[in-house]
Amino acid sequence: MKSIAVVNYAEEKGSVEIREIAKPVIGSDDILLEVANVGVCGSDLHQWTSDHSWPVNYPVVLGHEFGGHIAELGSNVTGWKEGDRVVSETAAVIDTNNPMSRQGLYNLDPTRKGFGYGVNGAMTRFVKVPARCLHTVPDQLPFEQACLTEPCSVAYNSVVVNSNINPGDRVIVIGPGTIGILCAAMAKLCGAEVAVVGLEQDKGRLQIAAQYGCEVIIGDANDWAKKQDGLGVDCVIDAAGVSATLKMALELVRPNGQITKVGWGPKPLNFSLDPLVQKNVRLQGSFSHNWPIWEKVLSLLASGRLDVNPIIGGVWNFTDWHEAFEQMHSGKVVKSVLKPN
Length: 341
Description:
Elements: E1 2-8, E2 16-22, E3 30-39, H1 42-49, E4 60-61, E5 65-73, E6 85-88, E7 91-93, H2 99-102, E8 113-114, E9 126-130, E10 134-136, H3 143-146, H4 149-161, E11 170-174, H5 178-189, E12 193-198, H6 203-210, E13 215-218, H7 222-226, E14 233-238, H8 245-252, E15 253-261, H9 274-278, E16 282-285, H10 291-303, E17 312-317, H11 321-329, E18 335-339
Parallel strand pairs: 11-12, 11-14, 12-13, 14-15, 15-16, 17-18
Antiparallel strand pairs: 1-2, 1-4, 3-5, 3-9, 3-18, 5-6, 6-10, 7-8
Helix pairs in contact: 4-5, 4-10
């Protein structure tokens, strides 16, 4: 049995196309997941435009934000049954004996490989998933929303786990993409006053950020950052996909404040980090997520305390992947969602 898939087949720019692939053969510890919806991530776009900074195992089926129903169970899998509604984490391959994995921080295992770049992802009808990656999707949560558990978990890890944000803190988020807006929403849930900063071409996405109760700023955010006491904000979340925004973050953060960098930027910095030292600022990276984060995020989504509907710009069939990618790449929508034809 074969299904169509959105395949990134080479490193050259634009090397993505629809191909037919065989139904995966699962191992004893795997399940076969029939995909209901899959979100398009900025990393999918970066592989499409070939400006990514991570190794890719070509050819590979794209897609790591996904959910669906269990279609088959491996012989060793317990606690699940066919038909269960599930979402999957992204750590498709890990070394369970790695010191980070043994601490539950398998997202930081250097040998980790994820769906959509290391192994085949979910922009197809069926995907092979290790049973350890699964989480139950509550019945009241539609798959169009549930498939965005992954970017919500990235934001949760950035804001709640890796940043020290208290009620009443003032926070600036740089970059109104999916992760930036979700980080802003998480900071609001933590009780912070939040502003989201973007460029002139980001007006549409900034309007989405405003729906989460955030101040929106185009360009220079210095006035907002320093309006309280002239020193800057307590925390800057750098969610832009470029390196240069770190310089902006250093200007906006207050002495003894924090910068959390979650956006990837492959180009060299080419500026001094002396302000980091002079201001006594903590610079924190944030990558991926782990099991307890997914459980908390699913609770937030199911209860409605976190609403991802405002960021969903549309749902497209797999065969219309190019339009879905273009809509996100151009900034016309924050998040595109795909579904099987």
